[in-house]
Design goal:
Number of strands: 7
Number of domains: 1
Protein name: dTTP/UTP pyrophosphatase
Main location: cytoplasm
Number of helices: 7
Bound molecules: thymidine-5'-triphosphate
Catalytic activity: dTTP + H2O = dTMP + diphosphate + H(+); UTP + H2O = UMP + diphosphate + H(+)
Distance between the termini: 11 Å
InterPro entries: ITPase-like_fam, Maf-like
Shape: elongated
Family: Belongs to the Maf family. YhdE subfamily.
C-alpha cells in the first residue's frame, strides 16, 4: 500500500514501537536516538509530545540522510498533570496508586519526514484510559515484574497486568502502546 522502494527508518529504542510498525507490514530499519525528555512547566501535553517527537526527528536526521524517518513520544496525563516514566519503584507505586480508579489521557505525538522531498508532518493522537481500583498488593506485584519502569504512566496496557488494570478505553489502542498506527499510516501516504 506504500511505495515499497522507499527506505523507512524508525528512530526509537522502544521495542513496542518496532513491533507495532512491523504489524503494518512495512520493511524498515531501527536506530536509537537519545533525548533527555524534559517536561516544561505549564506546557500543554499536545505541544509536549509534538515538541519531543520533533526533537527526536532532528537528532535522527544527523544520522539518516535519505528516505522516511519516524519518531514518536508518549505521555500520560492525569488531571492536567503530565506523567512520564517512573524515576524509581517508589515513584512507579505512587503513579499507579494515583491512576487507580480514575480516567487519564494518553497522548502520543509523532514526527515523520521524507528526507528526499523534505515533506514533514508532526501530529498526535489521544486516547482516554480508565483504571479500575487497584489494591496495593496488585501494584507491588506488578512493580516486581519490572515492566513499569520504562513506560509512561508506569504501565503497559499490552502487559498481562496492564490488561487487568484497564477497565475501559476510548480511542486508539495502539496509541496507548506507543504509536497511533492508523493516523500514522494515513500521514505516511501524504509524504511519499
Ligand atoms: C501508557 C503506555 C506507555 N508505553 C510505553 C511506550 C513508550 O515506549 C514509553 C514512553 O516513552 P517514550 O519516551 O515515548 O519512548 P521511549 O523512550 O520508550 O522510546 P524512544 O524515545 O526511543 O522512541 O511508554 C507502553 O508500552 N504501554 C502503555 O500502555
Amino acid at each position: 500500500m506504500l511505495n515499497k522502494n522507499i527506505q523507512i527508518t524508525l528512530a526509537s529504542k522502544s521495542p513496542r514501537r518496532r513491533k507495532l510498525l512491523k504489524s503494518l507490514g512495512l520493511k524498515f530499519r531501527s536506530i536509537s536516538v537519545d533525548l533527555n525528555e524534559d517536561i516544561l512547566d505549564g506546557e500543554h501535553p499536545i505541544l509536549t509530545v509534538k515538541r519531543l517527537s520533533l526533537h527526536k526527528l532532528e537528532l535522527a536526521k544527523n544520522k539518516i540522510k535519505s528516505g522516511i524517518i519516524i519518531t514518536a513520544d508518549t505521555i500520560v496525563v492525569l488531571n492536567k498533570e503530565i506523567i512520564g516514566k517512573p524515576k524509581n519503584e517508589k515513584d512507579a507505586f505512587n503513579i499507579l496508586k494515583n491512576l487507580s480508579g480514575k480516567t487519564h489521557i494518553v497522548y502520543t505525538g509523532f514526527a515523520i519526514e521524507n528526507v528526499d522531498n523534505q515533506k514533514k508532518i508532526i501530529d498526535y493522537e489521544k486516547t482516554k484510559v480508565t483504571f479500575r481500583v487497584l489494591s496495593d498488593d496488585e501494584i507491588n506485584e506488578y512493580i516486581k515484574s519490572g515492566s513499569p519502569m520504562d513506560k509512561a504512566g508506569a504501565y503497559g496496557i499490552q502487559d498481562d497486568y496492564g490488561a487487568l488494570f484497564v477497565s475501559k478505553i476510548n480511542g486508539c489502542y495502539y496509541n496507548v502502546v506507543g504509536l497511533p498506527l492508523q493516523k500514522l499510516f494515513i500521514n505516511l501516504k501524504k509524504i511519499i
